[in-house]
Design brief:
heterotrimer; A alpha+beta; B alpha/beta; C alpha/beta; A: Glutaredoxin; 4-stranded mixed beta sheet; two-stranded antiparallel sheet; about 15% strand; B: 3 domains; 4-stranded parallel beta sheet; 19 helices
């Protein structure tokens, strides 16, 4: 089962001059956050910090700003909110919506909810996975496509359904996939 | 308080509203097994081992969190309940590394004990995929082995709630849930303060100290080495538990005898180092008070606390007493004064300590802990490790005589022995400082206001025309509260004692692990502290400055407290750290 | 804007009501003063996905071209329910029902129908075209049996205009409560109405409010569960998209009743349209002072905040939802203490789901007796179901409690497509069970569904036909639960995983007969021991399929065969050599190179044929799909 496939990546960090190897879940994609993004995030934190239960909304807004929640961003939130980084990481890994790695330029999400599943969305998903050579949560090396499954987008009438960014494709069969993907290449 | 009468297995019990079924059952003479539950800090109803049948309730109820209600009828050990508990254990085992024979907790594992109790015959009853896991051996003081973790989250609660740190927590979800640090980074890269409270509460072998036993045995066996050992005050209040004695047994005499039989060349008492600390620290306090130094002065004996202060309150590092901890002072004196006195090459001395503490393993590697040009300490082991050494050496505890420590570094006063309980350092310091300030002898050396396991204790003493405001706290979450009050100006203390572990060293991360079934109903901190206070009471010398060996040390070697030599050997420096490393 | 007064509220209603009523089915054929024609276009997620935004754009352009802008009003409404036929467009006053509308159809519809007055029958939903002319959408099978209470405004009003809501008597239940009723009265009405929670467990709503009211506290909370997570259920989304104000009004009523001044709506972030409409609705309610201080000049104060879920099914569980609003991992807490005593931020709280809220203003206005007159003895009112799976009319239906499964599937749902045979209906999502044909005539209500091993849940109703393997379905739901388990308690974290592994072994042909008993035992263990509702109900899909479709399990375990031909590992593709002509099309298309040509000796003569190597075959089914001679079948 691929959920038990080792997800450990080896990362090298320069900690106080010595190169330090650590087995961790930090993404290997370099962080490209800008000053503007950080300012935006700090403004969000300033706006929300006194609202009860502010942590989740802040993390959601942070993901809107950066597209994902790498350690650099989570550390800003932890330091600003004075909560353990681990607490933020615990929340980020609990909810499916939070991403630790960047998403592709085109995010494909295939509905594997009941209605779509019984109408054959699994073969559609498998076809995309096969054509792009990526698995759940992964991004193609060129950063173009990322693939994920989702639960019911509420368009059950169109089952099986997938979304590429905000475009919805319904009544899919695997043979339609190559042509659809071509539109984004 | 409203009282409810309930029936536990047909036995009537009356208890106040808010009592849990677990507690009520205990009153009825019934033990309900628990795994995740830890009184006050971890009432989460997660493991489900404590389920019971409550008449009228829909499924089974978790006794640890289920409050009693009037006329409630509870059945704690019906065949159905017992069968289900066994199933819960079988499921836990299906995702557990069952290599019990080589496990550090074998024989003392709460899971193992329950499996035996519930007649689990087949650890593969629900064999299936196990979560992959790696050992985290990055920290100097401990190892995390998630393959043995049962996700009870007691460690998480101890770290987050008692210590206010939260460097470990539950991550991911569902079957993949695991306890680890943010981004699964090494514990060594986090702001873990090495207190070991997580180890103390772990029911299985998932968390354990990095052991130095083999190195120590090797040093003892090496004819070229002169191996001296010192034991902290709190060790004598806990060690006997490892040999089946009740909590609160004094092990001082047998411990000294056992250490001698293990082959240590000298068996010293850290109480000597503690008295020395008081001499220096009381002097430092008076100096700061009289010469406008940085106040409040905050104690620095607890290395977990020191590291916490450096990470979380770096602005307070100048308030920390520059005094080394008793262990380090004793180590420095061993390799200087003692070596000189005995004519031993200090390089040949291997200095070992037995501590109720895991943070000591971090402390010995700190900068500026080499007073005599050599590391003050070479090895430090926990109370648990000492018990293992004694057992491995085949020493029969019950047959041990009561022996005394060796001298000249084996004399300790009543003031020193109470270092092991929260408030002890403060009380010891007050006994000396007050007499120094007033020049008069205290009629009674007891400062009872600072005793007991309350989270934060305060007192004001009128000494020599001034009001001295003191505060004593233990548990780092409480320490944070105190520091925040100081920071905001809400409180104006002159002297603060902080111990990292709740209740002080008697409840240290290196002390014998006590099963939750006992911990939840006995205040082990108070029971162990009693040993120390009765030793204090029984001691004829109860003030550090009256310790004859200390007086001799100053006369013959150090000069006076705060002297240049004392500074060289007995004082240290601190660094400012951050909570979250920047990558 | 100032806080509107009761008189102003009445004035808005009186102005809007005739206008809105124009779109009611009982008003079909009547005239509206303002606009001659109303074109309602569905702006729900389903129809938006299939392009209704573009339709509105094209419609506007065409109206402009034909100079109809002051005669025809375009209303972007919420969901009509019949999503399978989307995008849907209804033209009033006739109630003409255009289905699967494309932008290309618009000019013709505008010209023929809006200008010419003659509906374009070829674009109308086929059922509405009869020999005697066309009928309104309300007379179709899909709508005729429905009784829309919670969905009453979906498809009727523009959800982005508060005045339209007020025009339907909106906020008049709140007015009634604030000016004429004591909190106890409200609770009594709810108790008398028999309303039970629509989110799953069916707890009496009035009782829940009564408990929360009884606890003294300076701060209490009213929460709305809009974290609709059951795959295949989307009634809450439709209410939020089509009638968001009803939720705000009902929550405000609850605030008055239990003594709370703050409410939270916890809504799935995956519902962007619902989130947007809620934001607009809250803003508009603030403008009118229907939220905030001194509502309708009565001195009552209440506000509502939005919280977005982040993709965790377990957050539909009440304590998990509250833990999540507090900003934590959404892990459930043990109960007691119940939320009525210690809920959100440890304060007395109530939580109801969207559909429950949507019923409340109507109950207040029309009375408990009206509501209690619908439904069965213990389940009053109506229930919304999301029909999905192998059924012709996928979509949302609202039916009185007590309607039979047969009526829902065969009449409203239009039966099973492609002439296939009905096998089972799954209700209650991952917490529910599969109901076989033998229970087709059981009246649907809370208690009956539980008695037959399923549950109401939030109202997903997935239909399965003979091509669905029930073991595979059970596995699908278990996989869902395993993915969504929070991981806190042992039975759910490890138990469901082990259950799933057993199912996987069975679908791979590695199961043993005794596994079935072991599975059943584990199911009952999990039900009794798990911490929260998610875990306690997780085994239901397994238990119900074991109960009704044990023969399918036995086929997998004993015969190593999947009767429905779904479980790949048990499948075999075989060539009927009588039919095969050896054309080789299958060979060329086989991705695994598993097919080779052979010769087949029939009595008297030799024929070309093919063979499939079962070791190489990946069971993709391409050969079967491509064979023009139907010579390949799966077994």
């Amino acid at each position: 089962m691929d959920e038990l496939r080792p997800v450990t990546t080896i990362c090298y960090y320069d900690l106080g001059g010595k190169l330090h190897q650590m087995a961790c879940k930090v993404t290997t994609v370099p962080f490209r956050g800008t000053k503007e993004q950080e300012e935006k995030l700090l403004a969000v934190i300033a706006e929300l910090r006194d609202t009860p239960g502010a942590l989740m909304p802040i993390m959601q807004r942070a993901q809107d700003i950066y597209g994902y929640l790498p350690i650099e961003v989570q550390t800003i939130i932890a330091d600003q909110m004075n909560v353990p980084l681990e607490k933020i990481y615990g929340i980020a890994t609990f909810y499916a919506q939070f991403a630790l790695a960047p998403k592709g330029e085109y995010r494909i999400s295939v509905c594997l909810g009941t209605a779509c599943y019984v109408k054959g969305s699994q073969p559609v998903y498998d076809k995309i996975s096969e054509l792009l050579g990526i698995k759940e949560g992964e991004c193609t090396p060129d950063g173009k496509f990322s693939l994920e499954s989702c639960r019911c987008v509420g368009a059950c009438g169109l089952a099986p359904v997938m979304m590429i960014n905000d475009d919805v494709y319904g009544r899919l069969v695997p043979d339609m996939i190559p042509d659809i993907l071509k539109k984004y290449e | 308080m409203e009282q409810y009468t309930v029936k536990i297995n047909g036995i009537e019990v009356t208890a106040p509203k808010g009592t849990t079924v677990l507690e009520a059952a205990r009153m009825a003479g019934v033990t309900i097994p628990t795994l995740c539950y830890l009184k006050d800090i971890n009432a989460i109803g997660a493991c489900r081992i404590c389920v019971v049948e409550v008449k009228g309730a829909r499924g089974l109820c978790a006794a640890c969190v289920y409050p009693i209600a009037p006329n409630m009828e509870v059945f704690t050990h019906t065949p159905r309940v017992v069968a289900y508990r066994k199933k819960t254990l079988e499921l836990i085992l299906s995702d557990h590394n069952c290599s019990c024979l080589s496990c550090v907790r074998s024989g003392n594992c709460e899971l193992q004990a329950l499996c035996k109790e519930y007649g689990v015959e087949n650890e593969d009853a629900y064999a299936g995929a196990k979560n992959p896991s790696e050992l985290d051996e990055s920290a100097v003081h401990m190892v995390r082995d998630n393959s043995k973790c049962i996700l009870c989250r007691r460690c998480v609660a101890a770290c987050e709630k008692n210590q206010g740190i939260g460097v470990i927590g539950a991550n991911e979800r569902g079957f993949k849930t695991k306890i680890c640090s943010a981004f699964e980074m090494d514990l060594a890269d986090t702001s873990c303060v090495s207190c070991g409270q997580c180890i103390a509460v772990c029911p299985t072998g998932a968390l354990y100290e990095k052991s130095n036993i083999d190195d120590i045995f090797a040093a003892i066996a090496d004819p070229d080495k002169y191996v001296v050992v010192q034991t902290a005050p709190a060790v004598r209040a806990g060690l006997a538990e490892e040999f089946g004695k009740p909590i609160g047994t004094n092990a001082q005499g047998k411990m000294a005898a056992a250490l001698r039989r293990l082959g240590f060349d000298k068996v010293f008492d850290t109480n000597f180092g503690a008295d020395l600390t008081i001499m220096e620290e009381a002097n430092e306090f008076l100096d700061r008070v009289q010469n406008g130094g940085k106040l409040p002065l905050i104690t620095s004996c607890s290395p977990g606390w020191v590291k916490y202060c450096e990470h979380y309150y770096p602005e307070f590092t100048e308030n920390l007493s520059s005094c080394k901890s008793p262990q380090q002072m004793q180590g420095a004196i061993t390799k200087s004064y003692f070596a000189e006195k005995m004519g031993i090459d200090p390089k040949k001395i291997v200095s070992v300590s037995v501590m109720p503490c895991t943070a000591k393993k971090f402390e010995i590697g700190r900068d500026n802990q080499s007073g005599a040009g050599l590391p003050d300490m070479d090895y430090t082991m926990t109370t648990r490790e000492l018990a293992r050494m004694i057992k491995r050496a085949g020493i029969r505890w019950d047959d041990l005589p009561e022996e005394d420590f060796d001298h000249p570094l084996g004399e300790g006063t009543g003031a020193a022995v109470i270092f092991g309980a929260t408030g002890g350092v403060m009380e010891a310091a007050l006994r000396t400082a007050v007499e120094k300030l007033t020049g008069e002898t205290l009629p009674r050396p007891d400062f009872v206001e600072v005793r007991g396991t309350d989270a934060i204790k305060e007192a004001t003493y009128h000494v020599a025309g001034m009001d001295v405001n003191i505060c004593v706290t233990s548990g780092l979450a409480n320490a944070a509260k105190v520091l925040d009050m100081v920071k905001s100006g809400e409180k104006n203390y002159h002297f603060i004692e902080v111990m990292a572990c709740p209740g002080g060293c008697v409840n240290g991360g290196g002390q014998p692990q006590v099963h939750a079934s006992v911990r939840n109903f006995t205040d082990i901190r108070a029971e162990r502290a009693k040993v120390l206070y009765s030793l204090d009471e029984a001691n004829t010398i109860r003030k550090s400055h009256e310790n004859p060996e200390i007086i001799e040390l100053y006369d013959k070697f150090l000069g006076k407290p705060g002297s240049h030599k004392a500074h060289e050997l007995l004082h240290t420096t601190y660094v400012k750290r951050v909570v979250n490393k920047k990558f | 804007m100032h806080n509107i007064s009761i008189q102003e509220l009445e004035a808005i209603r009186d102005k809007m009501a005739p206008h809105i009523n124009f779109r009611h089915e009982e008003m079909i054929g009547k005239m509206d003063d303002n606009y001659r024609i109303h074109v309602c276009v569905c702006g729900g997620t389903g129809c938006t996905s299939s392009g209704s935004e573009t339709l509105i754009k094209v419609l506007n352009e065409e109206l402009e071209k034909n100079g109809l802008t002051d005669q025809v009003q375009i209303v972007k409404t919420g969901c009509f329910g019949l999503c399978a036929l989307g995008p849907i467009m209804i033209v009033h006053p006739e109630g003409s029902f255009y289905s699967r509308v494309t932008p290309e159809m618009i000019p013709e519809i505008v010209k023929e129908h809006l200008v010419g007055g003659k509906p374009v029958t070829k674009y109308l939903y086929k059922e509405t075209v009869t020999e005697n002319g066309t009928i309104g959408y309300d007379q179709t099978h899909f709508y005729a049996k429905q009784n829309r209470v919670a969905l009453r405004n979906c498809g009727r009003i523009s959800p982005e205009k508060i005045d339209e809501y007020i025009g339907t008597n909106g906020y008049f239940a709140l007015k009634k409560v604030l000016t004429e009723m004591k909190p106890e009265d409200v609770i009594q009405v709810l108790l008398d109405s028999g309303l039970r929670g629509r989110g799953g467990a069916g707890f009496p709503t009035g009782l829940k409010w009564k408990f929360a009211r009884a606890y003294d506290n300076d701060q209490k909370y009213v929460c709305c569960n809009a974290d609709e997570g059951d795959p295949g259920a989307f009634m809450d989304r439709s209410v939020l998209e089509g009638d968001p104000h009803v939720v705000l009004e009902a929550m405000t009523i609850a605030g008055y009743t239990i003594g709370a001044s703050q409410g939270y709506i916890y809504v799935r972030a995956e519902y962007p349209i619902a989130v947007k409409r809620l934001q607009i609705a809250i803003e508009q309610a603030h403008e009118y002072g229907l939220l905030g201080d001194n509502i309708l000049g009565t001195g009552f104060k209440f506000d509502i905040g939005l919280r977005l879920g982040a993709g965790a099914f377990v957050c539909g569980e009440e304590t998990a939802l509250m833990t999540s609003i507090e900003g934590n991992r959404g892990e459930p807490r043990p109960r007691p203490p119940f939320p009525a005593e210690k809920g959100l931020f440890q304060k007395p709280s109530i939580l109801n789901n969207v559909e429950t809220w949507a019923n409340i203003p109507q109950i207040i206005l029309k009375g408990a007796a009206w509501f209690a007159s619908m439904g069965t003895e213990k389940s009053k009112g109506t229930k919304v179901f999301a029909l999905g799976g192998k059924i012709n009319n996928t979509g949302l239906v609202e039916i009185p409690m007590g309607t039979t499964l047969r009526e829902v599937i065969e009449e409203i749902g239009g039966g099973i497509p492609n002439g296939k045979k009905f096998k089972a209906a799954q209700t209650g999502g991952p917490s529910g069970g599969c109901i076989p044909a033998e229970h087709f005539d059981v009246p649907i209500d809370y208690d009956n569904l539980i008695a037959i091993g399923s549950m109401m849940g939030s109202g997903g109703l997935i239909v399965m036909d003979e091509d669905n393997c029930m073991v595979d379905i059970a596995k699908f739901f278990l996989q869902f639960t395993v993915d969504e388990s929070c991981g806190k308690c042992t039975p759910c974290r490890i138990g469901t995983k082990r259950l799933l592994e057993m199912l996987e072994r069975i679908t791979k042909g590695q199961g043993k007969l005794e596994d079935l008993d072991k599975m059943e035992e584990l199911c009952y263990y999990i039900k009794a021991n798990a911490l929260c509702g998610l875990g306690q109900t997780a085994p239901n899909p397994v238990l119900s399929t074991l109960r009704y479709f044990r023969d399918e399990y036995i086929a997998h375990v004993v015969d190593k065969r999947c009767p429905a031909g779904v479980c790949k590992d048990l499948l075999k593709f075989v060539v009927d050599k009588e039919k095969c002509v050896g054309c080789g099309l299958c060979m060329r298309n086989c991705p695994a190179g598993a097919i080779t040509r052979t010769e087949y000796v029939a009595p008297g003569h030799k024929l070309a044929s093919v063979e499939i190597d079962p070791d190489k075959c990946v069971k993709c089914g391409v050969c079967m799909g491509n064979c023009k001679f139907k010579a390949i079948s799966k077994q």
